[in-house]
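LOG
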Amino acid sequence: MNEAQGSGNVLELRHIECAYGGLRSVADVSLTLRAGEIVALVGPNGAGKTTLLNAISGLVAMRAGEVILDGRNVTALPVWRRARLGIARSFQLVRLFPDLRIAANVQLGATGKSHPGFFASLLHLPSHQRYQRKTAALALSALESVQLAAKANDPGSALSHGQGRRVELARALVATPKVLLLDEPTSGLHAGVIKDLVPVVKAAAEKGVGVLLVEHNLKFVGEVADRVIVLHHGEVIAEGRPDAIMGNPRVIEAYLGGAIGVRATAAASRVQKTSLHADSH
């Protein structure tokens, strides 16, 4: 039994470092994520949060470090191999095909699941038909989990922005991942829709999925996260439960610039109420 499996970690990052043009955007970051755990990555503008998600999923090259998925070192593997092994993610921008049915949009997320191959699909062989039935059922189940099964046959163009966010989440879930990476899932959503996302994210974790999310809405983080990791200038500066992190003086300084004369309790209140929308990572 290897170290990551023995500790119950479904994801382990060891001394990750990323750089753009010589400027380090992620500097020696190590963290763990357990199956069924929800961990939020927070931090001010330019902290390196999205870059870290991209490094985990293989979208950006790392200058140093290792990515361990469920005990397996996937550092050298391309994006599609990591996806097939259990890493799924959503992006800041909703990417749906407007002319496809919503169910078909979600079904695309299951393309790595025992696909029968190009010629089986081209000739519509029985293996392809079985694959289609299986992935269609998975897509409907994923839509049910995000409370959009009733819209399965609607075109993607018929969705509101909030519904599109939930469909993206369903498309990630249909792959039955081990690790789910969510990049600002509440971006552009109003309070009512954000509230609806809370049970959806928690339901994914209850199925044993490790959820790592980048988020600027600290109220949402406080409602869903088991643990919060704070990045600043590409480095981890704090880690702990949401209630403890919100009152951490170093976190307050990172967000508010260490304003002189501002009491920590008042500053913490401001941090909790601030969505920090200007977050380009």
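LOG (cont.) second protein
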Amino acid sequence: MSRAASRIANTFERLAREKRKALVPFVTAGDPAPNITVQLMHAMVDAGVDIIELGVPFSDPMADGPVIQRSSERALKFGVGLNDVLAYVSEFRKTNQLTPVVLMGYANPIERMGMQVFAERAGAAGVDGVLVVDYPPEESHELLATMDAAGIDVIYLLSPTSSPERIKLVSVAARGYIYYVSLKGVSGAANIDTSDVESMIAKIRLQTKLPIGVGFGIRDGATAKHIARFADAVVIGSRLIQEMEAATPDTAVEKVRALLKNIRETMDS
């Protein structure tokens, strides 16, 4: 896929015309059961989401809190790995050619598959972006070049502790959108300070024209709506996984659909 045809860019352009903000759910592929991942992806689209972040299960995460760690452990018990994740995206693409899919995870599974092989297979499957937590911009020249050649956006993280130099570096390297981690700590933590987030987003905007998404600590429609006043996208992960943990595999999909539909309606109201 050429850079000009990026599904991520097209999605943000459409949302800007509609004066709406992106709702971006994160779920771990294979959780709570491998046979419902694709069904879950379609249900999230039905609920009004704009981009799907699909977690690649990994045994030693560094940015994920206990909720997302547990989801990875459950998926790994089913034997779900990067090959399966790419297969889920391929299956999803049979009936959905519009919704961007971003794979989120760690370097090890990509290195094990081989970066070039991964890029080719991810591109063929219909992956639009990758966010690899432990490929910092200073050390990801090969990743960036390989993904650029495959038409896949490399998305980078910024956080409350990011220096002006780091913000500048990420602004140059990032493709698709920038993911701003709203608080110090791991995913699922609480006590998001929206005024701090707003001032940091304003600083990042001085360096980039890319959309900026905010994640970590967003748990309900009211917070999502507040964040959407100054961010281009709202990312929700741990709350969705908790919703599925409290459900059965039979009811998990409908629980997630209902929660996201409510958040979408609140954001748009």
